[in-house]
């Protein structure tokens, strides 16, 4: 009787949540994960099924799941069978380490579904070609395979996980296809042999330390799609002499280019924040071009904010700084730019042409003001002016208070829009809103013209 009870307890069903839209169920030794999106990441040993009463013999991940978390099934020693859908494109470190399934795989590149999960054993060839249809490269997949000289990545790959190629000293060049939309932190760090690198054109964020320590890199192309570069992403590019940061990049985080060998740097017009130590120790620097026209002393405000120690140990007093002609005085009086002893005004012809944001439309309805713009993805910067307090001594007063609302639109890589302005009166709504639809635009001018013509 006791033996039967223990058997029933060990085979009981258990279930729970393992992601924003993911659930898990363990029944009779089979773990099934269902839903859509990424698996939640837990600390080592903290996966919820680790606390289940019975062993996991079989794993079934259903279509819709997009990632497998680090250590997800690590040390599930009884796990011998896995079913992984094509929707999974990212697999974290040691997700299947210590499982019967992984231990049974032959040496060489081990696939989990369509993901190149991990190279196992000694490198059999310095040249590797990933299978057509591969969708992801797992964490630590080729980490510290020093003799890896060449790898061909097909255009089906979307994700490259953390430390995937870290410390692959033998790689001298690599072509990352434009299908890749995610490159995790440290993915190519320490690839000291790489001499050229083109970032995929669909990548928007360069994650922290992703390309740090590429000491032999002499050519780097950052695409217009990139909007932010995180901590230390390109630290230690000792052999790269020229750096161009495109107009759409809005932020450089701590130490993004620390210790680079640059002699010249171009910072695009869309830059809004340069963090601490971004260019620290770039001692070869002689020429900097900075295209933003407006500077600010507070991060998050319109204009470029630059940490005071962004250029520490860079000898900027010996560098030439090129800036827009209208901004020379601002750069000369704002740290750290004021440390450049030679500031040169750029003519309009020298500044690359940029599109201009469309003038915003202002709408007033139910006591609320809203903005819209024909240029997609803009930020709105507005000001509201109200009258000063005025004392009245009359028996009756009119509450026809007028507020002046001014707004412009801004976007990285674009010239700021012209200002749009309206007057909002407390008793009548928007001044100039002739047709009463809550918007001041061309239609109001047409309506006003019609009224005037009728009066004549």
Kindly summarize this structure in a few lines.
This protein has four helices and 32 strands. It is mainly β. Strand 27 and strand 28 form a beta hairpin.
Helical segment count:
4
Alpha carbon gap, first and last residue: 105 Å
Strand content: 25-35%
Which sheet architecture does the biggest sheet show?
Answer: 5 strands, mixed
Structural class: mainly beta
Query: Total strand count, please?
Result: 32
Helix content: under 10%
Strand order within the widest sheet?
1-2-3-4-6
Shape: globular
Describe the protein in words.
With 456 residues, the protein is mainly beta. Helix content is 7%, strand content 27%. The chain is built from four helices and 32 strands. It has helices at residues 2-10, 100-103, 328-332, 442-455, and strands spanning 14-19, 22-27, 30-35, 58-61, 67-68, 81-83, 90-91, 108-112, 115-120, 127-129, 136-137, 150-152, 159-160, 182-183, 196-198, 205-206, 219-221, 228-229, 242-245, 251-252, 264-267, 273-274, 287-290, 305-306, 320-324, 342-346, 361-365, 368-372, 379-385, 402-410, 420-425, 429-431. A hairpin with a 2-residue loop joins strand 8 and strand 9. The longest helix is centred in the last third of the chain and has 14 residues, at 442-455. Mean pLDDT is 87; it is low at 1-12.
């Amino acid at each position: 009787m006791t033996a039967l009870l223990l058997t029933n307890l060990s085979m009981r069903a258990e279930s729970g949540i393992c992601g924003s839209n993911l659930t898990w169920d363990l029944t009779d030794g089979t773990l099934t994960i269902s839903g859509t999106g990424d698996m939640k990441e837990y600390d080592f040993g903290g996966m919820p099924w680790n606390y289940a009463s019975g062993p996991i013999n079989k794993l079934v991940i259903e279509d819709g799941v997009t990632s497998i978390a680090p250590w997800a099934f690590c040390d599930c020693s009884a796990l011998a069978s896995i079913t992984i859908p094509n929707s999974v494109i990212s697999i974290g470190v040691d997700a299947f380490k210590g499982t019967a399934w992984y231990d049974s795989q032959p040496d060489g590149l081990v696939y989990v579904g369509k993901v190149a999960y991990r190279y196992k054993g000694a490198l059999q060839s310095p040249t590797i070609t990933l299978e057509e249809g591969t969708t992801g490269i797992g964490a630590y997949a080729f980490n510290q395979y020093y003799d890896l000289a060449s790898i061909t990545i097909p255009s089906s790959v979307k994700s490259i996980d953390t430390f995937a190629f870290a410390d692959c000293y033998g790689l001298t060049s690599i072509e990352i296809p434009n299908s890749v939309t995610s490159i995790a932190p440290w993915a190519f760090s320490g690839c000291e042999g790489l001499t050229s690198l083109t970032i995929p054109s669909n990548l928007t964020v360069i994650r922290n330390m992703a390309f740090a320590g590429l000491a032999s890199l002499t050519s780097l192309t950052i695409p217009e799609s990139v909007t932010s570069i995180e901590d230390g992403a390109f630290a230690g590019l000792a052999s790269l002499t020229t750096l161009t940061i495109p107009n759409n990049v809005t932020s450089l985080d701590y130490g993004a280019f620390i210790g680079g060998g640059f002699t010249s740097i171009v910072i695009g017009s869309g830059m809004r924040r340069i963090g601490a130590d971004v260019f620290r120790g770039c001692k070869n620097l002689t020429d900097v071009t900075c295209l933003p026209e407006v500077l600010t002393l507070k991060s998050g405000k319109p204009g470029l904010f630059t940490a005071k120690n962004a250029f520490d140990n860079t000898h900027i007093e010996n560098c030439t700084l090129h800036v827009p002609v209208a901004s020379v005085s601002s750069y000369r009086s704002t740290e750290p730019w004021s440390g450049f002893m030679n500031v040169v005004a750029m003519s309009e012809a020298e500044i690359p042409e940029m599109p201009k944001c469309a003038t915003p439309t202002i709408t007033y309805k139910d006591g609320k003001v809203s903005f819209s713009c024909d240029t997609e993805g803009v930020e709105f910067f507005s000001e509201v002016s109200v009258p000063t307090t005025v004392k009245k001594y009359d028996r009756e007063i009119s509450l026809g208070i007028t507020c002046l609302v001014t707004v412009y639109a801004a976007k990285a890589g674009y010239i700021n829009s012209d200002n749009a302005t309206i007057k909002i009166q407390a008793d009548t709504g928007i001044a100039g809103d002739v047709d009463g639809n809550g918007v001041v635009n061309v239609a109001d001018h047409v309506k006003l013209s019609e009224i005037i013509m009728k009066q004549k």
